[in-house]
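USER: My hope is that you can spare some time for a protein that puzzles me. I am handing you a single protein, as its sequence and its fold in C-alpha cell form. Walk me, if you will, through where the backbone shape changes along the chain. The protein I mean follows directly.
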Amino acid sequence: MKTFAFHLQKGGVGKTTLSCSVAYECSLKGRTIVIDVDPQGNTSSWFLGNKSSPKYELANVLYGKADPSEAILPTAVNNLDIIPTFGIGGELKTYGENQLANEPFIFVDLLESLSKLGYEYAIFDLSPGMGRLERSALISTDEVITPMTPEAFSLDGIEIFIDALEKSSKAMRRGPVHNKIIVNAYNKSIDQHNTILEQARKIKGFELFVIGVEPAFRKSQALSIPVQSLSYKEKAKDESLKTLKTIGESLCQ
C-alpha cells in the first residue's frame, strides 16, 4: 500500500482541497482510503456532508474503542472510503495531547491494518500544526506533498517545514520522501504571484505543480463531492483537472 500526506505548517493553502482531489485520482487506479487527521474534520465534512452521523471516528480507532473496519465509511465516489474525524465533539485532539506520546507509531499500525483490508492507497489530511499528531502521521507515510499559495509567508513556511520534517525524521529514524510542491490558487495576472512562483521554482530537489484560481473547488465542497465529479456546467477548468490528474499519476502509479 502506498501512503501520502499533504502538509505545511500554515492554514489556507489547500491541504484538504488537494487531499480530496488527489484521493479521487488514486481511486481510479485502486482501492483508496482518506484518513482525516485534522481535529476540525473538514475532509469528513466534504466527503460525508452534514447529513451523515457516523458511529465511530478516527480517535475511537486510535484509542482501541473500535476496529478500523468499523470506522470506515464509503464516500459518493466508487473505490474511495474515509475514516472520519468529528469536528464537533471529536476526541482526536485529546488523543494527540494525552495518549499519543505512549504510542508514537500508532499510525504505522493503522496503515498495516488497512493494507490487510485490501486498500492500495491511503491519504492523510493533516491540520496545519507540527505537534505529536502530525509528526506521528508523517513518519508513517511514504511521501509528503506540500501545498502552498503564492505568497511570501508560504515560502517561509516551506523552509520551516523542511527543517521540522528533517528533525522529526532523524529523531524517529524514519520519515517520508518530500520532493513535491503544489502552488495553489496561482493568478498569473498578479505580479507577486509570478515572483513567488519563480522563487518556488528555485527550491532545489523539488518537483513543482501549479494550479490556478479554481472556483469549482468551493462548488464541490458544497455538494460533498470531489471537483472531478462536478457536472459539465459547473466543472473545473481543463487546466486544473489536467494538473490534478498529473499529480495523481505521479503518486498513484
Notes: The chain has a mean pLDDT of 92. The first helix runs from residue 15 to 27. Residues 2-247 form a domain with the Rossmann fold fold (CATH 3.40.50.300). Strands lie at 2-6, 32-37, 73-74, 80-83, 121-126, 143-148, 177-186, 207-212.
